[in-house]
Amino acid sequence: MKLEDSHISLAHGNGGRFMRELIDEVFARHLSNDTLDTNADSVALSLPGERIMFTTDGFTVQPLEFPGGSIGSLAVHGTTNDLAVAGADPLFLSLNAFIEEGVEVALLERIVADLGRAATETGVRVAAGDTKVLPRGQGGGIYLATTGIGVYRHPGVLAMNEIRAGDVMLVSGPIGDHGIAVMLAREQFGLRGDIRSDAASVLPLTRALRAVPGVRFMRDPTRGGLVSVAHEIARATGLEITLDEPSIPVRPAVTTVCDMLGYDPFYLACEGRVVAVVAPDAAAEALRAWKALPGGGDASVIGEMRALVHGGRVLLKTELGGLRILEELEDDPLPRIC
Amino acid sequence: MKLEDSHISLAHGNGGRFMRELIDEVFARHLSNDTLDTNADSVALSLPGERIMFTTDGFTVQPLEFPGGSIGSLAVHGTTNDLAVAGADPLFLSLNAFIEEGVEVALLERIVADLGRAATETGVRVAAGDTKVLPRGQGGGIYLATTGIGVYRHPGVLAMNEIRAGDVMLVSGPIGDHGIAVMLAREQFGLRGDIRSDAASVLPLTRALRAVPGVRFMRDPTRGGLVSVAHEIARATGLEITLDEPSIPVRPAVTTVCDMLGYDPFYLACEGRVVAVVAPDAAAEALRAWKALPGGGDASVIGEMRALVHGGRVLLKTELGGLRILEELEDDPLPRIC
């Protein structure tokens, strides 16, 4: 670590010598690859001549580090997972960092290193970047944005409008770990737990379903959780979705915290899970494919789609056999979890 | 404008109904095009099978609106100009918005509309987007980030290492207008002027040089201004660069404000100018091409590159004929101008 200063100052954002040192010593060092050129205005991308996929996401999680990850790894997983659930292999990322004056350089470096590791593990290159320094009191420490480019590799069409009445919904693993892990890391509740964020690349999960015919649509349930994904599908298709409460995997520790604090786990963010909608006769094979993967052991069929005159609703069939309507999220259960 | 609320709340960032309304009523309405799909995790890009160029930039300008532009138009021009000076035609943008709780929806809408207009004028599509809402007191109103994709269209190679001793440096128009316009818009100096930001697409300027053989390198002098571009070139090439003060176009009003407040215009940001380095025998044709364009009337040859034992310096030949060293920027002359 050669940066002379231990804290970020506004001069690290001014386009001059301090900024160049910050970029060389912190960003380029951890993110270096054949494509990234910190002296170029734009870089050339080597892309296979196929269907190119594009997505972007912003990250404002607080605290910046939490059990199981940091805003750095999240900034890779969040964006590359959006490419993965859309059927693509992620190839390149751009990175924007908004750093508040006074941030410890050591903290920034841990986060950039975590981002670099996540990128390497996911097989994606940071090909372009920019940093801005915000005056003290006008930022939340570090905000990141990443934009991802990938190549479509799913053999069929993945789209919400491929979903039909009778299709079933699957989830790849327990929900809510990320939301609860971040909340507990804030310590404001005086609770301590062993819950780690599920933040991870879902690429192995989405790749596994390429061999399964009858996959209609995939999404990662981040902000707004499982219920928000279900509402998006219900709204787009006009179908009614019934989720089966006993089938939805939730870790006991997550249930306990939710019960104590009055949260509904079905609205909590995951950062390493996939929701898939598949034809009914594809469910068993999809489940088998997921269960064979690390982290896929709790994969489950959790709901079904039905055509109804009054479609567009999301229902929960409860443990006791009753039906309750799951409303679209209005209040924020947990702000700044991603 | 159908958004029910007049101010942004944290609920506009939670992934639920309010967030969807914000995206539909403010973002999708002003940015709509065939590629953007606000329901998709990733969108497919139609790209010609050629050299794909990629760049990103963050925007934190304060105030958010200033004579000649806003953070919205700046977010388009800043990123598409980086593609343009690299020899590309910009095609697609991603957009990240970090919006502080309490921002007036009417202000946000003006800025998004300005961004949409700039995108249309530049011929670029916003193909992906994300918004995050920051808690009050942890943001500067609105921060934006854009990532751009383009296709390389320059007939030759544009790169700093194409620059040779004897090459000359050109600038396409008066420098410093953007920096001074933004500073005056802050009103903290009690000055009022007619200076408007030069923020604009430089694509017509960079396209005009495609017909000129001998163009080595182009860059837009943003943060850190003309001197920072010269230092980047000097550092990368080991050449000494001498800028000719009387030849550098600066509007009298900009000179006046700089004299009053002690700024050096050579360090001030432009957002619609191009610096080009060309072979000596190409300078006349490049100048002619620029002068024929709207806004190119003040284009000038402003400096030359020399091989020296002690290379890497940037010198200014002053009006009086003396030579002074232009140091690399360390202090920030004007924070948050882009």
TrEMBL record, chains A, B:
Cite the SUPFAM superfamilies for this sequence: PurM C-terminal domain-like, PurM N-terminal domain-like
Pfam families for this protein: AIRS, AIRS_C
Q: Where in this chain does the record put each PurM-like C-terminal domain?
A: 164-307
PurM-like N-terminal domain mapped to chain residues? 42-151
GO term, biological process aspect, one: protein maturation
Q: Identify the CDD domains for this entry.
A: HypE
Q: Which family is annotated?
A: Belongs to the HypE family.
Q: What is this protein called?
A: Hydrogenase maturation protein, carbamoyl dehydratase HypE
Taxonomic lineage from the root: Bacteria, Pseudomonadati, Pseudomonadota, Alphaproteobacteria, Rhodobacterales
